[in-house]
Each structure stands twice: as C-alpha cells, then as structure tokens.
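[step 3/7] inverse_fold.run input=structure_tokens len=278
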C-alpha cells in the first residue's frame, strides 16, 4: 500500500466478509510513519506516529521527557519528510544538549557490565514532580466533554485506529484535541500544542485510552493536575498520581467515573457521592 507521507488517512478497497457473503467497499486506514527525533544533530530515538501535528509532538516530547524544562529552551524544530519517514531536527540550548549527552554517556558506560537493565530501569523512573494544587473541576461538566468526543475525533471516526488527548476548560468544553495512533504521542502533541502557543493550560485533560505510568509521568512534567481516562488505570499510574498530587479518574463514561487519587479538586453535585474517596 502506498500513500503520501503527509496523508493521515488512506482510502483502500477491501473485501467485507459477513454472514457468509463477500462485498467490496472502501475502507479508511490510519497511516503510521517512522519519526526520528534528532537533537542538535545527534539522533535520539525513532517512534511510530501519525504524520500530523509533528511539530507539536516534537515540542511536547522534548518537554514531557524532560530533555528541556521550559519551551524557551527549544530554539527550533525542522521537519523533513523522506521516503523512509519523517526526520525532526530539534535545536535545544547548549546546556540542555550537554545534559542529554551526559545521560547518554552514562547509559553507554554501563552496557556490558551486567548493569544495563538496572540503568534502564533507573532511567525510566524519573524524579517525581508534584503538580500545583489550584485547579478545580466540576465533575458534572465531564458529561459536556464526553458529548463532544465524536466531533473531536475525526480520524477515529474514519479508521477506529487512533487515540486522542483533549484539553478541557472549567466548563467541560474541549478547547484542544490531538489524535495519533499512539496514545503517548497524542498526549505529547497536546502538551506541545499549548506550550508552543503559550496558551492557557487546560484545567483538565481527557484521554480516550487507559492511564498508564508513562501518561501520568508526562502529565506531571506538564503540570497537568486533573487527568481523566476513558479506560482503566494501571497500578504504577495510580501510585505515581498519588505521589505527584495528580487527580486521577478512570473509566469515564456516560454517567460514571472512578476516582483514584486527590479528589479534593472535584466540585459539583456528585461531590457528595465521592466524599468517602475524598
């Protein structure tokens, strides 16, 4: 199957097999491309992503992975589409680049000595960041956001293959939405979107996926204080949310939600039924 590197969705003729019958129809497939992130000329990582909003992804990834601590430390982002994928050249300050190189040297120095796996585990568990505590959200307004899901998931409606990360305002309105085949990348795009535009941080973030450890870790790096997930919450995510002072709510569906941590930020008529958890 061939597609233009900029296309997010591809049309394809397929055969539907249903109840013993075969019929031809047009299907829509979510495209994924290799995305290489290069910092100051040094290759860092290659990921698979949807070929859209890749500047936001690069900025969000650089922030959420704590390669830089502030968006002003990112000096430039250049995209190059090639037959093999997308090359993203990210220029960061010399201080941040030296710290990144030192981290890479530390990891390389342990390879082959029996400690490589330990080093990788240490790298995965970054120092805990405690978010601010000023955000408040009326839990009754969650239904507003859930009611706006379809109109903010254009690629999912076509393909059924993408996740979304959406920023909510205090009224539950979706003020920013990013989709990707990767749930982590969708969240990075959201973080990059409001960071690069120096826009007001969302009061809460709604994920169409589960809330895993990495998602909570990225949220903490971006000072996201309230995290709603439409699917389940993992044990390490719950543990990190508790330590990071993040309000974590899972299984957000029509008329229900499961509160896991720091419910003091939630307001509204349903607060009484959450009183024991708070």
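[step 3/7] decode complete -> sequence:
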């Amino acid at each position: 199957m061939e597609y233009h590197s900029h296309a997010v969705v591809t049309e394809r003729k397929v055969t539907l097999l249903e109840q013993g019958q075969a019929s031809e129809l047009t299907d829509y497939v979510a495209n994924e491309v290799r995305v290489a992130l290069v910092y100051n000329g040094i290759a860092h990582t290659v990921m698979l992503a949807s070929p859209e909003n890749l500047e936001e992804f690069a900025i969000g990834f650089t922030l959420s992975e704590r390669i830089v601590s502030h968006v002003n430390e990112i000096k430039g982002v250049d995209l190059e589409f090639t037959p093999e994928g997308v090359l993203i050249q990210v220029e960061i300050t010399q201080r941040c680049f030296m710290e990144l190189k030192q981290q890479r040297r530390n990891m390389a120095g342990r390879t082959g000595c029996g400690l490589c796996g330990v080093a990788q585990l240490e790298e995965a568990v970054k120092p805990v960041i405690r978010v601010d505590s000023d955000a408040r959200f009326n839990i009754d307004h969650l239904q507003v956001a859930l009611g706006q899901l379809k109109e903010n998931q254009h690629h999912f409606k076509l393909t059924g293959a993408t996740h979304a990360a959406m920023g909510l305002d205090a009224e539950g309105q979706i003020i920013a939405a990013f989709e990707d085949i990767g749930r982590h990348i969708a969240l990075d795009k959201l973080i990059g979107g409001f960071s690069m535009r120096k826009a007001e941080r969302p009061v809460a973030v709604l994920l169409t996926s589960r809330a895993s450890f990495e998602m909570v870790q990225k949220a903490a790096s971006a000072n996201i204080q309230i995290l709603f997930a439409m699917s389940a919450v993992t044990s390490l995510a719950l543990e990190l949310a508790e330590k990071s002072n993040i309000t974590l709510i899972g299984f957000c569906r029509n008329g229900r939600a499961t509160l896991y941590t720091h419910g003091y930020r939630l307001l509204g008529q349903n607060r009484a039924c959450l009183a024991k958890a708070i």
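[step 4/7] annotate
Residues 94-110 form the longest helix (17 residues).
The longest strand covers residues 9-18.
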